[in-house]
Amino acid sequence: MKTLTIALAALLAGCCALMWWQHHDNTSLSAQLAAASTAAIAADFEASAARADVVRITAFVDRVRVVHDTTATLRQEIPRYVTPTADRRYLLPDGFVWLHDAAAAGVPEVDATGDPDAASEAVAASQALDIIVGNYGSCHETAEQLSALQDWVRGHVDPDMAPAR
After folding, report:
1. What does residue 53 show for φ and ψ, rounded to 5 degrees?
2. Dist. CA 146–CA 32, nearest whole Å
3. I need a labelling partner for 44 at 20 to 30 A (CA). Which of 82, 121, 141, 145 fits?
């Protein structure tokens, strides 16, 4: 009887050890499964975000190309609207050139020496118009870049965390 009790106690201890091992093995498998599931969800999210980024970048490149082409077309039209005869007849005053150069440099002071009403022999109206058209084109390209950046940020921000408008 004593032997039977010892055998039953050993069998019970073995069953408990087996159940303890099985529980920890299942817990480990559950953790591994959860980690794999999380990794798969993260990979899927990153892939969809990458596809969305490609779409946004393509749209941005297309918009900038349109702005660039429009600027190039306008620059080609300058001789049609400001003819060489008009260039010779209407010289830009020095004051215009000084103020334009100060604005382009981003300085509040105009480096002016001489008569601001004197006609500048160095800059023709068509040259100034070419620079102005190019500057407006650059401004529109920068606006498209900012718009694309804003679209990208909106696509990566959780709507619940976005600031109120």
Report:
1. -65, -40
2. 43
3. 145
